[in-house]
Amino acid sequence: MPTLKQLTVEALSNLPMQGITSVGIDAEARAILREWMLTARNGGKAVQHSTPKEPQAAAATATPTHADVPQTVEEKLAWLREKAQGWKAARALGTLRDSMVFATGSPHAQLMLVGEAPGYEEELQQEPFVGPAGQKLTQILAAMGLQRAQVYISNICKFRPSMGPQQHTANRAPSDEEIAACLPIIQAEIRAIRPTCIICLGGTAARGLLGHAASVASQRGKWFETQGIPTRVTYHPSYLLRNDTISARRAVWEDMLAVMHKLGMTITEKQQNYFR
Ligand code: URA
């Protein structure tokens, strides 16, 4: 049975994940926190006081300092990466593999791309979208005039979904349960980065971020919002690998042109007319 102290520490540690970096506490709570801190400093033994301290003085020692709270986007992402590593909600399911694959690209990107989950190659290289689907994504970005390092690439699920002990290169999409378990992480990444525009790569990302169960075909070509940020749903690059048709490529490219427009990027005549 966890103690009140353990529950409090756990609850407070999870707050930054929800974007909350400060909490107001009353004098009694400050006094309790101070007591815990002094006990911890005293090797776990309760400290005897001759005179109770003023709550004001207690506040000065119990309140986290500025330096303790992640401030910059880089610090927030580093903190999130560490949290994701031991993310209990995901680990508790027992259906996801052990190693965590976080995200890649610029913390200051205007464009965030969200896929479904790492696969074999991503798990091996500890980076999202580095396998065949990743190569297709890199080509699409290049056609837009963007390099991977200029955008932020992440996944809705941070662990490769498990297919049992015999699993080698095969991959599977994450289940609704697995998506829900990892969702607070990508939501916190979005809060930290505040991109101008988000692309959901495939239906799994749209299901997680937007709560849409509809087909990609019925969602693409429109704008939605995630935390107030314009969000476009398009086909997953692996769909293009399976269906290398002009119409599928044109659909993705139309979505990318809309994204470029939203980002205020210059669109050349050649780019405008790729599929005309
Ligand atoms: N597919 C995804 O959705 N994400 C990856 O990182 C790789 C393949």
How does this structure look, described?
- It is a single chain.
- The protein is an alpha/beta fold and 276 residues long.
- It has 13 helices and eight strands.
- The protein has helices spanning 4-14, 27-41, 55-62, 73-85, 88-91, 120-125, 132-144, 176-193, 203-210, 216-219, 237-242, 246-262, 269-272, and strands spanning 96-100, 104-105, 111-115, 152-155, 159-161, 197-201, 223-226, 229-234.
- The chain has a six-stranded mixed beta sheet, sandwiched between helices.
- A hairpin with a 2-residue loop joins strand 7 and strand 8.
- Helix 8 crosses helix 9.
- The longest helix has 18 residues, at 176-193.
- The protein starts with a helix and ends with a helix.
- Residues 50-61 have low confidence and may be disordered.
- The site of uracil has 12 residues, from helix 7.
What is the secondary structure topology, with strand pairs?
Layout: H1 4-14, H2 27-41, H3 55-62, H4 73-85, H5 88-91, E1 96-100, E2 104-105, E3 111-115, H6 120-125, H7 132-144, E4 152-155, E5 159-161, H8 176-193, E6 197-201, H9 203-210, H10 216-219, E7 223-226, E8 229-234, H11 237-242, H12 246-262, H13 269-272
Parallel strand pairs: 3-4, 3-6, 6-8
Antiparallel strand pairs: 1-5, 2-4, 7-8
Helix pairs in contact: 2-3, 4-8, 8-9
Bound molecules: uracil.
Uracil binds next to helix 7.
